[in-house]
Amino acid sequence: MLNEILLWNKIGRIIMRVHERLDISPEQALDVFYSSQTCERLHDANDYLYLMGDLYIVDELILELQGRGI
User: How far is CA 46 from each of CA 31, 36, 40, 50, rounded to the nearest angstrom?
Assistant: First the structure.
């Protein structure tokens, strides 16, 4: 239960960073994040992405989006 709360807090911070970095609305940032491979990786306990800092995860998401040509 505590881990879920920590993950939700982390996701909230990541979404706000994406909102700032991409200059999009928080709602758009939420959609971008939740439709990403990075989000899937963050929820995968075997990937260990959840151990990385928020800025690192945002950078991973930006690289993913660039790779998709977005």
Answer: 24, 17, 11, 10
Per-residue exposure over 2-19, b if at least 16 CB sit within 10 Å of its own CB, e if not:
eeeeeeeebbeebbebbb
pLDDT tens digits for range 29-66 = 999 999 999 999 999 989 999 999 999 999 999 999 99
What six digits make up the tokens of 41?
Answer: 């990786």
CA 27 – CA 33 distance, rounded (Å): 10
Contact between 33 and 61 (Cβ < 8 Å): yes
Q: For residue 59, what is the enclosing H or E element?
A: helix 54-67
Separation between Cα atoms, residue 1 and residue 58, nearest integer Å: 24
DSSP count for the chain of H helices, then E strands = 4, 0
